[in-house]
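Hey L., structure's done. Input below.
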Amino acid sequence: MTRWLRRLVRYPAIAATLVVGAVVLVLAANDVPAGRWIATVYVAVVIVWVLIGMVRDVLRGHVGLDILAVVAMAATLAVGEYIAALIIVLMLSGGAALEDAAARRAKRELTALLDRSPRIAHLLTRSDAGTDAVRDVDVDDVELEDVLLIRPAEIVPVDGILLSSSGTFDESSLTGESMPVSRGEGDEVLSGAINGSRAVRIRAIRRSADSQYQQIVALVRDAQESQAPTVRLADRFAIPFTAVSLVIAGAAWGISGDPARFAEVLVLATPCPLLIAAPVAFLGGLSRAAKAGVIVKGGAVIEQLARVRSAAFDKTGTLTQGRPDLVEVRVARVADGATAAGAAGDAAGDAAAAAGAAAHAASATARTAAGPSAVDADELLTLAASAEQYSSHVLADGIRRAAEERGLRLRPATDAREVATNGVTAIIDGRTVVVGKPVYVASLASDTTPEPLQPGQAAAYVAVDGRYAGALILADDPRPEARRVVAWLRATGVERITMLTGDVEATARSIADTVGITDVHAELLPAEKVHLAAQLHPRPVLMVGDGVNDAPVLAAADIGVAMGAKGATAAGDAADAVVLQDSLLPIAEAVAIGRHTLKVAYTAIWIGIALSIGLMLVAAAGYIPAVAGALTQELVDLATILYALRALRGPGAGIGTSPVADPIAEAHPAATPPASVR
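Output:
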């Protein structure tokens, strides 16, 4: 009983209508005329209220479907069917309650993410006695380097480094992976993960607002607050449905000569299936996408995903795993005060392959005959990694990681600056160190020589004090699922798939061949990516990227999808959807969910229209009285809403989650380790 009272308080319009209806029924049963007047005044007030809302909708550019409900209420009052008029009011207010209940069910995955947002952190501090003391603080008050205690089964409040020897965490809310994952000392632990059965300590590496889970929560709030395209869907049907309903009602009145027929038809023409079922379907799609590991920023994006016809991918960190490993350190050698590489001439970094090969041959000959190198391999790696401390590029991470694995100590820079997509320049121990693309390094060190690369390898060129010092050769494995995702998109109606990358042509082609993409645009600046994305046809265009430099093209694309598992904040802010897993599979799932959601929304609308028109025709023949028609229409609303909840389930991409054998990789092993160039 208490639960029902709470629900009535939550929906005052329903409570008021039920009270008025009860009073009117009692008065009508006792033949008291006041009952009719009470019903008439109450319904008239509702009509005025609905009309005000319709005017607001028109001022926003939306055609109001509530005109049918207004006409139906006015018509039933005019012919004396005031009980039917009250039922229509109850139907409209009850429809809002049904929508709210269905929406809460449809949004349960999104709401679950918000409800689990960590609020308290256990801060470990040293007491005067030298023992650890635990103090609870608000999660927003956690500072960098703070040491936190995570008790068993608690949510990790901020991103941190595990200080305990080991720990087990449930990351299902972040990645969709249902099995707990094990972390060792020094591993990163993401906020939002649930600790296992033993208490652990972490050192905070990000504040709450910058941590992974808080970014997800912000995305979820954006998704919940955004306007789904349900108004647009309703608008497409509003005028035709209204016209057909009025024609049927007018014809019934004209043929029968009974004005009551007009009201009897219109009580079955109320537009709840259009106004309620479609929003519920889109909320279900948003929730299902969140469960699949994709936060979609609103129903409009779901609709665009359903219609996507072209797809563009960045390469590094998107089609590849974004974790390049150092495979070779090539040191340039000097002869007679000049680098041997310089003997090959002032080669431009991105020269033609033949010229590059000739230059390398000259360099190799010179190296053999020349004296010692300007720096040795460890010094070259140390200087490069020290400079790359100030770079956000994915290759920089691989270089820094390689230096740390070799036990090299990185040095601070007195000055450092990065030229996006090109390279970084830093002053280290008084020496000017440049690391980056060959063209960029060659512009500052004229003796830079192109290095020959195997398919899929990448090179970060290094110059020291204006002289070419060598190159660091890295390789990055392709994502095992990339080829399957590309093939699935192509097989399911995406007509054009292309790669847009800032990497050099040879490396980009190698990656593209491995994953099954034939249309490649390489060596692009961010502005050129935006221009090419705008020129792609057919539309809509899906663009997938992961880095800061991808933010402009993600924002410019019809549907921008950011690979956000590694915290690409700028890309995530610019994108329309963010993938929480470090995988391309959720992108295919999101497209499949979008298509299923749009199909369910349209089907729910057509079910409502078909049932309403069929019942209107029956009412036009005089077989459905006004009161019975109003009650019957409520069943139509319920049927369409229940159907709309099918968006919570349905077919996905169906391409699995485990890697499969790649026939190209098996036939051409040398082509399998693709990588990136800055």
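The chain is about 50% helix and 15% strand. The longest strand covers residues 467-475.

-- N.
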